[in-house]
Amino acid sequence: MTWVQRHIAVIAGEQAERVPGASLDALAPLLARLRVDLRRAVNMAVLRRSSGKASGQLKFQLAAAGAAGITDLEPDGKGRATLWLRPLGDAMPDVFRQAEFWPSRPDPEWTAFDLLASVVEEISAGKAESNLFDESFLHSIGRYSQPFREQDFSGIQFVDSRLSEGTILNEATLQVAAQLSRKTPSPQIARLEGKLDTVRLSGRCFELLLETGDRVSGVLLEGDPAELSARMGTSIAVGGQAIWKASGHLLRVDATSIEPVAQSNAFFSQVPVPISANGIRRYSKRLTTSPHLQELVGSLTGPGESDAEFWAAVEELS
Questions:
Q1: Are 38 and 158 in contact (CB under 8 A)?
Q2: How far apart are CA 317 and CA 313, in angstroms?
Q3: Rounded distance, CA 171 to CA 175, Å?
Q4: Cα–Cα distance, 235 to 269 (Å, whole number)
Q5: Chunked in runs of 10, what are the mean pLDDT values of the chain (318 residues)?
Q6: Is there a contact between 256 and 239 (Cβ–Cβ < 8 Å)?
């Protein structure tokens, strides 16, 4: 079993000066939040859900990767606390043992600390297209406001992450997280049909290859993962919720049902978009070019109404 050291520093004031006199007792609320988000960062990297659930041996390996022992602040006046973590490859051997055609795993030498620092970097930069966080993670990041306020801290610094030195989570990060959260569309009911192209991690995580050539990531929340694995390479229909990025693009599908289909329906074999005003416009433009809906549109139009007038009405309603 291998352990590595990483360091955080509590900062205060506009100059982001370190607070050397803080004790672990004073930092308890802040460190409690940090432990939560270390686990979230691991879940997001492996399960693609920050609040992902797992079972069997994987559950214990995820917990081991997200755990952190924290020792007292260093007596050298630098205001740093030492975190002891296991490298991801050491803590989760099953995750890195499975072969991947499309690489999607983090560096096995990284730790949960490095993953979380990466998340903070992407949030601080306002990267709405990021795959490193979901809306639940954004809400969790926003909860640092309370320990910051109660202890009069302005942030914490990830001193020595593998990504970069000096990553800072502060009030500016929380404001960007709130903005990204507001931009993120609400989850919506979705149905997708395509070829089950990849299954990994005890059958819970999968990828669908759509007729458009796009790949969609999904997580099976309910049902028997063995059933999903048994359908590898076949056409299936997935029902559940579409989960979005802050950009409005699809992040993943949280699947609650799967069923075989003889052949994918082109209407359901394309990447969904949020059902908002812009989403309806994007759908209407997409559907006007779909040969599979021409007959349906013809049945919906009124006497003397052209297809163009039908879609104009859809646009007006949006």
A1: no
A2: 6
A3: 6
A4: 10
A5: 86 61 72 94 92 80 92 60 93 82 78 96 96 96 91 87 83 96 96 91 82 93 83 93 96 94 87 73 53 52 58 54
A6: yes
CB proximity list for 228: less than 8 A, separation 6 or greater: 196, 199, 203, 206, 220, 258
Question: If DSSP codes are grouped into helix, strand and coil, which group holds residue 125?
Answer: coil
Strands 69-71 and 215-220: unpaired
How far is it, in rounded angstroms, from Cα 105 to Cα 118? 14
Q: Which residue carries 């606390």 as its tokens?
A: 81
Question: Class of 185-274 per CATH?
Answer: mainly beta
pLDDT attached to residue 173? 96
Q: Nearest-CA neighbor of 153 among 7, 17, 6? A: 17
How is residue 61 written in tokens?
């390996």
Instruction: Kindly provide the residue ranges of all beta strands, DSSP E only, lying in 121-160, ordered along the sequence.
Output: 155-158
The predicted structure's pLDDT at residue 293 = 53
User: Measuring CA to CA, how many Å separate 203 from each of 127, 198, 229?
Assistant: 30, 9, 6
The three-class DSSP label of residue 268 is coil
How many residues comprise the chain?
A: 318
Sequence spans of domains, the chain = 4-183, 185-274, 276-318
Listing DSSP states for 3-17 in one string gives -EEEEEEEEETTTTE
Show the tokens assigned to 238: 């997935």
For residues 49 and 73, what is the distance between their CA atoms, to the nearest angstrom?
A: 32
